[in-house]
Amino acid sequence: MKTDVYEEKVATSKSGSQRSEDNYGSSKPEFDKEEMMKKALAAGTPGAAHKALDALAGNWRAEVRWFMDPDGPANVSQGTSKASWILGGRFLEEEFHGEMMGKPYMGRGLFGFNNTKQKFQSVWLDDVNTAIITAEGKGENGYKVITLEGKVDCAGTGQRDINMKEVFRILSADKHVLEMSHDGRKTMEITYTRQ
Predict the structure, then answer these.
(1) Which residue, 71, 126, 176, 182, is most buried by CB atoms nearer than 10 A?
(2) pLDDT digits (tens, 9 = 90+) for 115-124
(3) Which pTM does this prediction carry?
(4) Domains defined along the chain, listed by start
(5) Radius of gyration for the alpha carbons in the chain, expressed in angstroms and rounded
């Protein structure tokens, strides 16, 4: 009985089925290599969502407002940012210089749009952390508002997997705002003005 099933599978495979048999009788799909290459090239080509991120490219003055105490005033500091396209316009790389708790602060970020997942994605690193912060999300209103979500940990409190949200609001070609919140509480707002 087992032999008949195996012979039937082999006969079906040889008769032009879209599946092929390995040495153990299990089947795996066959792929059209030319079609796969077309899809891979399309997924790797920057599109409209990448073009929308062009509004974030350039040299910026940054006003940073930290909300350490939700009922208290914001701590305000100044910074600068330079955002440049890398890898053929696929990723926007930001270098940020500012101040945190009265000390110099530097951060680096990557921002892009994953054509396969149809989501914006970001990575952030800085010189006060050993964590790599990642987030992803969607754009709306013609990509004038981009909302990313991720998880962060707090070394100070020991909390893990805190819900983080970043909302980028592109107000004009010369101004945009980043709002950040943790577990629904606003923690930071940066206003970028083109230099």
Answers:
(1) 176
(2) 999 999 999 9
(3) 0.81
(4) 2-43 (no CATH), 48-194 (2.40.128.20)
(5) 24
